[in-house]
Amino acid sequence: MNHSFIWTDLSTFDVRTAKQFYRDCFGWRFNSVGQGYLVCSAGQHPAAGLYRMPDFFQKINMPSFWMSYIQVSNIDEIVQKAEQLGAKIEVQPQEAPGGGLVALIRDPAGAGFTCYQGDEMGGRDDGSTLGRMVWNELHVSDLAVVESFYTQLFQWEIRPTPQSDRFEIYSAEQSIAGIQVSPNEVKGDKEYWGVYFLVDSLSKAQARIERAGGQVAVEQPLGTRSAWLAYDSQGAAFYIVGNEEQTNSSDDKPTSTFKWRAILGLLLVVTAIFLEADWVWGLLFLLWVIPDIRSGVTYFFEPVERQQNPIIYWLIVSTWSVLS
User: Fold this and answer.
1) Are 201 and 251 in contact (CB under 8 A)?
2) Longest C-alpha distance within the chain, in Å?
3) 108 and 87 in contact (C-beta within 8 Å)?
4) For 263-269, which contacts have Cβ atoms below 8 Å and span 24 or more sequence positions?
5) Which helix (H) or strand (E) is 182 found in, with range?
6) What SS3 state is found at 29?
7) How do the pLDDT tens digits run along the chain, 324 residues long?
8) Residue 124 gets which letter from DSSP?
9) Measured between alpha carbons, how far is 163 from 175 in angstroms, rounded to an integer?
10) DSSP alpha helices (H): ranges in the chain?
11) 215 bridge partner residues
12) Backbone angles phi, psi at 312, to 5 degrees
């Protein structure tokens, strides 16, 4: 369907590390299509793209990120119209790996997306294949800033939902995406299009993500469905959503697994209080610092990524280290 989401890819710092992470989490296989671009497959189906972030973006401290692709029939016309509506054209129309044309556009609020003209890409799923993209959602702090932009550019219809802070996007009377209005305290200081991948079970996927060096940060529901925000081992944010019939299962509650680390931490706190053992506090701070350095993401009331907010990140990590 024209003006719908059809593809996603990851711009990452270390392709080899990213391949291992997503192989462990989603069971993806990888195939090169040239120009340093890899197609990731879930089973027999293409699921996403993967490539090394260009040096220019790394020099300006661009964080590793997942990109949403929207199919269009005339990319030059869309780019020209987007610019007239207040968008910034980050990448002018150019050839895409594997065929077709792509252009990177940043909407008036700053959320980036890629327009694609062609028929070679196609990785969004109907909800039947694990490990594939099943949804896209715009996370924005003020809908009024971008509503007119998207309705005029793509002729989308934005409809309210029973949740006061969430909206759904319709194209040709079909629901194709969502919009989540959240304050910066919840979503961070960036506006972005979130990419959602289907998993067998949220709790099992969480365990795989954490074993692979990533983190599951917080639950951010898709209406009545549960979805969790996660970060890969290099700090790229993505979402996982369970099968429809599993969404409300007790197996998919974040508290359903045995939290032995949390229990051990509580025992250490009790030990420190009753024995006045200051070294225990140092050990706890050290246990907080090491995983944060490995993952590139720390938490202090909200996630702070090393690539996105390096000064704040290192201030927090340094504080924990000094206290340790």
Assistant:
1) yes
2) 71
3) yes
4) none
5) none
6) strand
7) 689 999 999 999 999 999 999 999 999 999 999 889 999 999 889 999 999 998 887 888 888 999 999 999 999 999 999 999 999 999 999 999 888 999 999 999 999 999 999 988 876 777 778 999 999 999 999 999 999 999 999 999 999 999 889 999 999 899 999 999 988 877 778 899 999 999 999 999 999 999 999 999 888 888 888 999 999 999 999 999 987 544 444 444 444 445 666 677 777 778 778 877 778 777 777 777 777 776 566 767 666 666 567 888 788 888 878 887
8) B
9) 16
10) 15-26, 55-59, 75-84, 147-154, 184-187, 202-211, 260-275, 278-295, 310-323
11) 231
12) -65, -40
Go through the chain and tell me how many residues it has. 324
Instruction: Tell the burial category of 40 from Cβ atoms under 10 Å away from its Cβ (0-12, 13-18, 19+).
Output: buried
Q: For tokens 């929207």, what's the residue?
A: 70
Non-local (6+) Cβ contacts of 4 within 8 A are: 70, 71, 124, 171, 174, 176
Six-digit token pair at 14? 């270390």
Terminal CA-CA length for the chain: 55
Alpha-carbon distance of 137 to 120, in angstroms, equals 23
Place of tokens 């556009």: 105
Strand order from edge to edge, sheet including 38-42: 29-32, 38-42, 45-52, 5-12, 65-71, 112-117, 101-106, 88-95
